[in-house]
C-alpha cells in the first residue's frame, strides 16, 4: 500500500495539471477556512485530524477518533463583518468503522452559504479481509468518504431603500449542488504518518439568478475546482511536525505549502505555530500562533478549547482570530 501511495504522490507531482479554459480559482463553498487547531498548525492538518472536524479536512480522520463520540464547534469572524461557523458530530461504530455529519455556514445578509456533510470512514483491514483475507494489518490504512450538499442564497439585502431603476437590476438567486471528498491515511510506523486527500472530487452546482429587468444570467451549472493534498506528520516525544503540499490541478492555481509544529507543554496545555505560502512564488505568506487547553472536569467529558491568531503577511487587514470547542 505504501508503494501505491508513493506512486500517487509521484504522479501528482510530475503530471502536467489539467488545462482550464476558465479560471479554476474557487470563489464559493470554501470550507477549510475554519479550524483553530488546523490553522494553528499553518493548515498542515490533514494527516493529524482525528475528531469531528475531519469532514472539513480529511474524512479518513474519523477512523482515529479518540473516543466513541466527538463534537466540534468552530467559529471565525473575518474583519468583524463576515463569519464562518461549523458544527460537527462524529461517532465510532466499532474499532474499524466510524461516521460523522456536520453543517458549515458562512455569509451575511448579502450572501449566505451552507454545506452539509455525511461521512464514513473505515479501517483498510476491512477491505483487505473482504478481498484478500487478513493481509492488511489493522490500523495501517484509513479510508474516508464525505458526501456534501451545497446551498447558497444571494442578493436578499433589499431592506434598504434604493431607486426603482436600480432595484429593477438588483440580482438575487440561489444555488444547490452536491460533491464528494475522498481521503486516505497511512501509518507505516508509530511515528511516521501520511495522508492523501481529494476535495470536491466529483461535484456539480446549479446556480439561478433573477431580477425584474431580466438582465440576470439566469440558470446555469458549474463545478467547484478539485484540490488534492499530500500530507506527512512526524510524532516525536512531545513534538509533532506536520507538512502538507496542496498540488494545483489547473494551470492558473498555484501549489501551496503548509508547515506546522505542535508542542505538548503539559497534559492541559499545547502550543502551536505554523506557516503557509504558495510553493513556487512564495506569495500568500501566513504565520500562525495558537494554543489548545484541555479542561478535564470530574464526571464530565474532556473539553478542548483551541484558539489561533492567523497573520496574513501581505494583507494585514485579513488577520483573523479562530476559536474552537471540541469534545475529542
Can you tell me about this structure?
There is one protein chain. The chain has a single domain (2-13, 35-327), classed as Porin (Beta Barrel), CATH 2.40.160.60. The protein is globular, with a radius of gyration of 21 Å. Strands 1-2-3-4-5-6-7-9-10-11-12-13-14-15 form a 14-stranded antiparallel barrel. The protein is mainly beta. The chain has helices at residues 2-14, 36-40, 54-57, 124-131, 164-167, and strands spanning 69-78, 82-94, 97-107, 111-123, 141-154, 172-186, 192-210, 219-222, 227-236, 239-247, 256-264, 269-278, 286-295, 303-312, 320-327. Helices cover 10% and strands 50% of the residues. Residues 12-23 have low confidence and may be disordered. It contains five helices and 15 strands. Strand 1 (69-78) and strand 2 (82-94) form a beta hairpin.
Report low-confidence residues grouped into runs of 5 or more.
12-23
Can you tell me the CATH topology? Porin
CATH homology group: Outer membrane protein transport protein (OMPP1/FadL/TodX)
Radius of gyration: 21 Å
Record field, number of beta strands: 15
What fraction, in percent, of the residue positions are helical? 10-25%
Structural class: mainly beta
Principal-axes shape call: globular
* CATH class annotation: Mainly Beta
Strands side by side in the biggest sheet: 1-2-3-4-5-6-7-9-10-11-12-13-14-15
- Could you say how many structural domains there are in total? 1
Per DSSP, the total helix count is 5
Helix and strand run: HHHEEEEHEHEEEEEEEEEE
Biggest sheet details: 14 strands, antiparallel, barrel
Terminal-residue CA separation:
29 Å
Mean pLDDT reading: 85
Strand % is over 45%
What is the level-2 CATH architecture name? Beta Barrel
Amino acid at each position: 500500500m505504501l508503494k501505491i501511495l508513493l506512486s500517487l504522490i509521484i504522479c501528482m507531482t510530475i503530471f502536467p495539471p489539467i488545462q482550464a479554459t476558465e479560471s479554476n480559482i474557487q470563489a464559493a463553498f470554501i470550507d477549510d477556512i475554519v479550524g483553530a487547531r488546523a490553522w494553528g498548525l499553518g493548515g498542515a492538518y490533514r494527516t493529524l485530524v482525528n475528531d469531528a472536524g475531519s469532514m472539513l479536512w480529511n474524512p479518513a480522520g474519523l477512523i482515529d477518533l479518540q473516543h466513541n463520540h466527538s463534537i466540534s464547534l468552530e467559529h471565525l469572524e473575518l474583519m468583524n463583518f463576515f463569519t464562518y461557523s461549523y458544527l460537527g458530530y462524529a461517532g465510532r461504530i466499532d474499532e474499524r468503522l466510524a461516521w460523522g455529519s456536520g453543517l458549515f455556514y458562512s455569509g451575511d445578509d448579502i450572501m449566505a452559504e451552507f454545506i452539509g456533510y455525511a461521512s464514513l470512514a473505515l479501517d483498510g483491514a476491512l477491505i483487505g479481509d473482504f478481498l484478500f483475507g487478513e493481509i492488511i494489518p489493522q490500523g495501517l490504512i484509513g479510508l474516508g468518504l464525505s458526501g456534501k450538499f451545497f446551498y447558497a442564497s444571494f442578493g436578499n439585502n433589499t431592506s434598504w431603500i434604493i431607486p426603482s431603476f436600480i432595484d429593477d437590476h438588483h440580482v438575487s438567486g440561489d444555488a444547490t449542488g452536491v460533491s464528494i471528498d475522498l481521503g486516505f491515511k497511512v501509518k507505516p510506523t508509530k511515528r511516521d504518518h501520511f495522508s492523501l486527500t481529494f476535495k470536491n472530487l466529483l461535484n456539480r452546482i446549479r446556480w439561478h439568478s433573477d431580477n425584474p429587468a431580466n438582465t440576470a444570467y439566469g440558470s446555469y451549472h458549474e463545478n467547484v475546482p478539485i484540490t488534492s493534498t499530500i500530507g506527512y506528520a512526524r510524532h516525536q516525544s512531545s513534538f509533532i511536525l506536520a507538512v502538507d503540499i496542496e498540488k494545483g490541478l489547473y494551470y492558473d492555481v498555484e501549489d501551496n505549502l503548509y508547515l506546522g509544529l505542535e508542542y505538548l507543554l503539559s497534559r492541559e496545555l499545547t502550543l502551536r505555530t505554523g506557516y503557509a505560502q504558495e510553493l513556487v512564488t512564495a506569495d500568500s505568506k501566513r504565520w500562525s500562533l495558537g494554543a489548545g487547553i484541555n479542561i478535564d472536569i470530574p464526571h464530565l467529558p474532556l473539553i478542548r478549547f483551541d484558539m489561533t491568531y492567523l497573520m496574513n503577511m501581505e494583507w494585514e487587514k485579513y488577520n483573523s482570530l479562530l476559536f474552537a470547542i471540541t469534545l475529542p
